[in-house]
Write a structure and sequence with these properties.
The protein has helices spanning 14-23, 56-66, 83-87, 100-113, 139-143, 152-155, 159-177, 221-225; strands spanning 4-8, 27-31, 70-74, 92-95, 117-123, 126-132, 186-190, 200-203. With 226 residues, the chain is of the alpha/beta class. It binds zinc ion.
Length: 226
Amino acid sequence: MTRRALVVGAGGLGGPLALALGAAGLELWIVDPDVVEASNLHRQVQFTPADVGQPKAARLAAAVVARGGVARGFQTRWTPDDADDLGEAMDLVVDGCDDPGTKFGVADWAVAAGTPYVIAAAVQLGGNAMAGAPGAACYRCLFEAPAPALQCATAGVLGPVVGAIGGVAAALAIGLVRGDRTHAGSIFVFDDLRAGADPRIVRFQPRPGCPACARAPVATRRAESA
Ligand SMILES: [Zn+2]
């Protein structure tokens, strides 16, 4: 059975996520509202100067397809309202966008759907990747609510940082989709990749009364129906 993954964000993190998951044989739906800008090329290495002005989602999907994978791109901003149209019957959800509110929405939606997920973030010299699965502590258990955060577009990010964290996020995602729950409910934190590449791996407990996961499924939906 072909596994299908939703990739939210086709930029610096979405690029390595999609290329790795596509090469691993997952069918991808890639969602991003933006077009490629010349200022993206130093960190979004899936794109070339010929892609400038083109939709990121479609160009990243084309990069996956060019490498033998299966992917579709959707030039739209992911919102909870159309999530079921874009994400129905997904085996995995990964997020590499740079909008805190969207990251919470993606995580909450994955939790409610009983779908394993990875939420990745990077800015300046570090970042993090959090893995979640039914029954484990969720993204909202850890962060509670969106907070103002530095963003790559304004604060900058060292190009290789997104590649490194995107790769870690992809490895976590491939583990989850294969049923490996070793890191479900954990976050890998990289403070400064110039100083060292070892993450702090923090496993956290479900927060009692968490509005996202307290009443969510405790088993993967498609695993139950398979
Ligand atoms: Zn929770």
